[in-house]
């Protein structure tokens, strides 16, 4: 069975629009990777967008991976109890 993986770059200045685009890309994907290497912090609105994305990915049964996550962003995701919903890659 062939996997259909897409990797999208999340821009630090456009976290919410980039995550909305990622949500739209969930259809017909078994796996989706989001490159967070350019994001050094995430605000509450961005955190809500990550939460919405995680919920939609689970609904679509899509495995979501986060790449290049900064330690501060990881800690924020951990506090929001979102880390279990993603796999993490360097």
CATH-defined topology: Transcription Regulator spoIIAA
CATH class: Alpha Beta
Oligomer class:
single chain
Q: What is Rg?
A: 12 Å
CATH homology group: STAS domain
Give the termini separation.
26 Å
CATH architecture: 2-Layer Sandwich
Percentage of residues in helical conformation: 25-40%
User: What's the helix count?
Assistant: 3
Mean model confidence by pLDDT: 92
Q: State the shape.
A: globular
Overall tally of structural domains: 1
The overall strand count is: 4
Largest sheet: 4 strands, parallel
Secondary structure category: alpha/beta
Query: Stretches where pLDDT falls below 50 for ≥5 residues?
Result: none
Q: Provide the succession of SSEs.
A: EHEHEHE
Could you explain how this protein is built, in words?
The chain is an alpha/beta fold and 90 residues long. It has one domain: Transcription Regulator spoIIAA (2-Layer Sandwich), CATH 3.30.750. It has helices spanning 15-24, 44-59, 71-79; strands spanning 5-9, 31-35, 63-67, 87-89. Strands 1-2-3-4 form a 4-stranded parallel β-sheet, with helices on one face. Helix 1 (15-24) links the parallel strand 1 and strand 2. Helix 1 (15-24) packs parallel to helix 2 (44-59). The radius of gyration is 12 Å and the shape is globular. It starts with a strand and ends with a strand.
Question: Descriptors for this entry?
Answer:
single chain; 90 residues; Transcription Regulator spoIIAA; four-stranded parallel sheet; globular
